[in-house]
Amino acid sequence: MARRDLEKVGRTPLLGLGGVELRPNVYDLAIFVLVAAAFVAMAYGAREIAAPASKLVAEPITLDPAHLPEYALRTTLRMFAAIAASLVFTFVVATLAAKSRKAELVIVPALDILQSVPVLGFLTFTVVFFLRLFPSSELGAECAAVFAIFTSQAWNMAFSFYQSLRTVPADLDEVSRHFQLSPWLKFWRLEAPFAAPGLIWNTMMSMSGGWFFVVASEAITVGDTTVKLPGIGSWLAVAIADRNIMAVVQAVLTMAVVILAYDQLLFRPIVAWGDKFRFEQTAAQQRPRSWVYDLWRRGRLVRRLTLATGWIGQAVAALPVGFARPARRVAAPASGRVSDIVWRLIVLAVAAYALWRIVLFTRSTLDWSDVRTAIEMGLLTLLRVAVLISIASAIWVPIGVWIGLRPWAATRVQPLAQFLAAFPANVLFPIAVVLIVALKLDPDIWLSPLMVLGTQWYILFNVIAGASAFPTDLREASTLFRLRTWQWWRKVIVPGILPYYVTGALTASGGSWNASIVAEVASWGDTRLKAAGLGSYIADATESADYPRVVLGIVVMSVMVVACNRLVWRPLYRLAERRFRLA
Amino acid sequence: MDLATAPKVTPRADAAPLVVVDHIRKLYPKGSGDDLLVLDDVSLSLRNNEIVSLLGRSGCGKSSLLRIIAGLLPSSAGRVTIGGREVDGPAEEVAMVFQTFALFPWLTVLENVEIGLEAQKVPPAERQKRAVAAIDLIGLDGYESAFPKELSGGMRQRVGLARALVVHPKLLLMDEPFSALDVLTAETLRTDLLDLWNERRMPISSILLVTHNIEEAVLMSDRILVFSSNPGRLVAEIPVHLPMPRNRLDPAFRQMVDDIYALMTARPVGKPAHGTFAGTGLSLQVPRISPNLLAGLLETVAGEPFHGHADLPALAGPLQMEIDDLFPVAEALQLLRFAEVAEGDIRLTEAGRRFVQLEPDGRKRLFAQHVLAFVPLAQHIKRVLDDRDTHAAPASRFRDELEDSMSEEYAERTLRAVTSWARYGEVFAYDEDSGVFSLDNPS
User: Fold this and answer.
1) Hey, which CATH number is domain A2-289+336-580, 3.40.50.2300, 2.40.10.240, 3.90.79.10, 1.10.3720.10?
2) Is A337 on the interface with B (CB under 8 A)?
3) Is A190 in CB contact (< 8 Å) with chain B?
4) Which pLDDT does position A165 carry in this prediction?
5) Is the bond preceding residue B231 a cis peptide, omega within 30 degrees?
6) Which region holds residue A529: left if phi is over 0, alpha if psi is between -120 and 50, else beta?
């Protein structure tokens, strides 16, 4: 009971692991090819466009602390623009997938693959594309940055929303049909509220992850085009170029303030508010709290404001939107099998064509040795990710268990862990690089920890959530039987927290792959450190505007991430769910 | 609601039917083989001013029938008319109360009650007035702004009732409305509902109540329609002429309950003795009943005051078991030849009496003999395991065999039931992780 409550409170992301078929099939492959073809198309487009003039930024970035608030604000605004776009995308695409079987056949595998694609990789094409779209203004670069953040956020949100729509409780669905709610009313009264907790949690997680990308996407060099949008990321890039450690520290502090404000003013109030949509018929003992939310509810003026918003909500739900009432006739099972097969064939045919185009595009510049190099690099990065996640697990699982079993510690540490997960680790990179340079360390080894710098916290706070949800009676039983330490770990606590740990480790490893693109290459002034790996391979190709190699790198990385997820994490997650979920 | 001024109508039913169910059949498609027949040629009618119960065990299709009448589920053949109009979708004249309450947890009591009116685009002011009136009627005044999770089960079901009444339906459908409530709460709610009905304070003409509780049916209805299972057929129509309010201890009441028990345990003519489980031979659908429960019932019937022969209603009362709980256990005992069930009675066989006397190991051996003798699937699995050199076989093999004659869900359930019995009798072992049956018992 307590466990379910805690879970629904939203400490663990409601991962979209349930619905998708485990074994990759031909169809998955086809969707994969289509996604890859989309990159190729973008790369192709990018190559066709002559690199725009480098006079892009009207006002250069200056390392004047007076500008920091403005930069921070602009960074934050980019973030919100992206989250707005992601929400719109989620509502449209996930709803489409849930309502149309044909759309579902394409959208769901595509979302699943896109979740695993390293988004930093295709920053290259999007920047060039958007610069071309708005040639004479900063708007193009802004769009590219927002798009980059969007691509890091949208997929899991859409996936969560889709899964919620598909698992609407049957009895409530029946009530809606019985009382003949229009589709619009049903959406606002049943589907959206039911999906809210999962969507809110995924949105918040996406935003946490997003700070990393907003910093990474503000200062981009593609070939001889350098874009520096006013923001913390560009400030940081200039500070690195100037070897200005003070400016780096200022950026770190500013970011900390921004994240703190985001956490207290947005994350917590919204999670606390979203609690009312939890689909549970019993009151939970432990509810998410937020002083801002309490304040908001207590204040009289804001109460009025809330009522007004509520009224608008009512009005929206009551809008006579163009849907007709549901068809009177109870739908008999559609005889759509034939059209489904035709649809599948069409998708496969398009995929085959796309594959052919990919071969055409890459054949002129790439050969098998390139593929081999990329795969070798990929294996190096894979090794790094595996070692680092193991080390991070070895450190954080015991600590997380220790904290989670002590409620007083958990309530204090949990917000900190979530804060650290949201903090963009790339802001800290320069400090690490300075140390590596100063101590003359081997970059192949010492750049690696940067990959998990920001993502290890997912392991920590998931393990804390798991351990604090561990049932008291089981703990007491194991104490009574005087289990030895090793026995206790193996038979009691590890199985107990496994579903939580897997969730955390999966998120962390995905994040680490992505981070490798910025973590395997680091510079400090003219000093440039590089660790051999797929991340630096992609970063190098990006800098020299070598589009075919960028595409190759992204594709190899996506394949590896998808393979890791399907072959390691998901089977583990299913096992954890089946065997160790304490219902 | 101007219910107080509603004309007093005599409790006797009017002649003109409100609902006519005409030769309804319902088939569910199965994974393979023939479709599953759930309702077989059901015809019935409901008049104004009567409460009718559909009484039957789980799997008799009574809930499906209710949903077909409500227009939530299409029938495979036949037609339903309400007030002379054919039902071809969610019908306006009908409102339903759900077993699970089915309240929106994020809406307040008031908003939940208003939902049907909102869908009908009733203006907000009137909506609220009608909803408040319905909430008052049902005895929930003061709880308008509460959320469902703050209410007890009984109160939640009152909200469900108010939500149904507020749309002024002619026909109120109730799908096992009291079965999710504890005994005392359920009784209070039944009494309150009957009071409202008898005082004509609800704006409805008729109530159709689905239940598996025989006493509830006798307590509440003017007519009881008894359904058989697999497939669902209407087997009897019993008018109840007892005066309201009814007393459960009244001898006439008891007699009626006894008669219905007898009717529901009567062995269908020409059916083999394994009761009402569907299928024969390998495809016999075995319910999942724990061996402990079987042993428990055997001991109860063998002990005081029954001495091996018990009246099912007399057994059901003190055990707090409703027929859906009791019948499958009794019939599983019958399948294993530990007991005979007929005419509302259960009588232990010689083997059943012996079982009770034995020590745990002896019980296991006897149980194993009976499982092998009377459960064809257990026999089959044992034979395959004996024949193989490895003495092991994957469960998927038997599952596939079962799916030739039943749906995936039933196949899975049957296999699990037989596995559980075989494990208790140590007939063979099953490893959950690898999904393999084998003869070696870990010991």
Assistant:
1) 1.10.3720.10
2) no
3) yes
4) 87
5) yes
6) beta
Domain ranges of chain B: 17-264, 282-438
Rounded CA separation B383/B380 (Å): 5
Query: Rg of chain B over CA atoms, in angstroms?
Result: 25
User: Does the model's ipTM exceed the 0.90 cut?
Assistant: no
> Which three-class secondary structure state does DSSP give residue B46?
strand
Q: Do B388 and B428 form a contact (C-beta atoms < 8 A)?
A: no
Cα dihedral angle (A571, A574, A580, A583), rounded to 10 degrees?
Answer: 170
Q: Give domain limits for chain A.
A: 2-289+336-580
Using CB atoms, pick whichever of B73, B107, B156 lies closest to residue A330: B73
Say if A280 is an interface residue toward chain B (CB within 8 Å). Answer: yes
CATH topology of domain B17-264: Rossmann fold (3.40.50)
Shortest distance between the Cα of B433 and any Cα of chain A, in A, equals 9
Residue A276 gets which letter from DSSP?
G
The residue assigned the tokens 């510049």 is A365
> Cα separation of B46 and B223, whole Å?
10
pTM, two decimal places:
0.76
Burial-class residue B46 by CB neighbours within 10 Å (0-12, 13-18, 19+). buried
CA distance B160 to chain A (A): 10
CB atoms within 10 A of CB A491: 14
Q: A484-523, pLDDT tens digit by residue?
A: 778 888 888 888 888 888 888 888 888 888 888 888 888 7
- B225-250 tens-digit pLDDT: 988 877 788 888 889 888 888 888 88
| A315 in reach of chain B (CB within 8 A) | no
Please check whether residue A383 is in contact with residue A520, taking contact to mean a CB–CB distance below 8 angstroms: no
For an interface test with A, which of B76, B92, B100, B168 has the most A Cβ atoms less than 10 Å from its Cβ? B100
Is there a contact between A281 and B149 if contact means CB atoms under 8 Å apart?
A: yes
Evaluated on CA atoms B228, B93, A186, B96, the torsion sign reads: negative
Per-residue pLDDT of A452-483, as tens digits, reads: 888 888 888 888 888 888 887 777 777 777 77
Determine whether the interchain pair B105/A179 forms a contact, defined as Cβ–Cβ distance below 8 Å: no
